Amino acid sequence: MFLRRFAQSVTVGALDEAVVPVFCMHNYMCLIIHESHRALRQVAPDLADALAYDCAPAIERARHSVKLYDDKYKELDDVGADFRRIIEEHRQEFLGNTWLPLARPLERDLVLWRFRGRLVSTSHTASFFLAFPPQAFKNKDDLGPRLHAVAVEQGRYIGAAAEGLPWQGQPVLDVMKTTDRTENKVRAEKHYRRSFDPALREEIKASLTAMTCALNTAAVLLADDTNPSSATTLFKLRYITLHHVLSSLGKLDDQYGAELRTPDRALLKDILDAPMSNLNLQAHRGFRNTLVHYRPTRDVQERLSLDAPLYGLLDAYFPADEARSLGDTLVLHTAHVADRMSAWCDN
């Protein structure tokens, strides 16, 4: 239902206003579509057949991008290689196109999109999450329809799955102000040179930028959705985002930590050693898997209730004191990590 409200606001609203939110939400939408359909194939195969959708490989690929460095089929440097390819493709497309030497410094190959001053997407990040070619970012007249087509395809599945259920509130896009969003075109080389630690390669900085965008989406962009019926999904998106960012930062620290400057090592330590970070990373694996895959184990099913907060999953997997406070603590810690990563990104 959360995705139905979002998709509705995208498909009926102005295309230029929906571009950045679609960039921010695409991989989450694909995560929910792919995993819900996969679960239905096990528990309700006839319904799964009726809900079969097109573009399944693309949706699955985008779903796995949520994992960042946690994709079991890729090492950290494999993700870096994906961003290296994206960076080079954008350079080739957008630079060296003018015959006038004096105008060449004015060419730009990276777009930054901010919401209330916080970075929520870039053209490199969007390419990673959506697998769009660099040509797609040349002008909004081409980009808008391309994104609209993606949203319509996703909307078919969402609409069929949610058919007959109540709308339950205002879509989050309807409360966003156009003035909250800004767009800035820059030289990628110069931008990444100023970002994060100088010891890190450009492609690793691009992947850290994608993490920062994901955190700001969860902590800032989606904060306007105060609809009570969105609370469960917002918890899920924050928890999963924070989990994969923290796990990815741990892997970054293991591989590159010794090369970083003292302040940057201290920043990573502050993030990774926080009690909420430890709780998120060390929490019962079944909790994270249920949030993602929808199929709690049989012993947990017996403890669940549709009337309980998060259907009783918190009480099933966490001690009582942690279960009571986890929702509020998660919001605060996601915001804290987003603040620290944004400051590191904007060095």
Descriptive overview:
With 347 residues, this protein is mainly α. The protein has 16 helices and three strands. It has helices at 2-12, 15-43, 45-50, 56-65, 76-94, 123-130, 140-161, 188-194, 202-219, 231-256, 262-272, 275-282, 285-293, 298-301, 313-317, 320-345, and strands at 110-115, 118-122, 181-186. Helix 2 runs parallel beside helix 6 (123-130) and helix 9 packs antiparallel against helix 10 (231-256). The longest helix has 29 residues, at 15-43. The chain is globular and about 70 Å long. The mean pLDDT is 87.
Outline the fold blueprint.
Blueprint: H1 2-12, H2 15-43, H3 45-50, H4 56-65, H5 76-94, E1 110-115, E2 118-122, H6 123-130, H7 140-161, E3 181-186, H8 188-194, H9 202-219, H10 231-256, H11 262-272, H12 275-282, H13 285-293, H14 298-301, H15 313-317, H16 320-345
Antiparallel strand pairs: 1-2, 1-3
Helix pairs in contact: 1-2, 1-7, 2-4, 2-6, 2-7, 5-6, 5-9, 9-10, 9-16, 10-11, 10-16
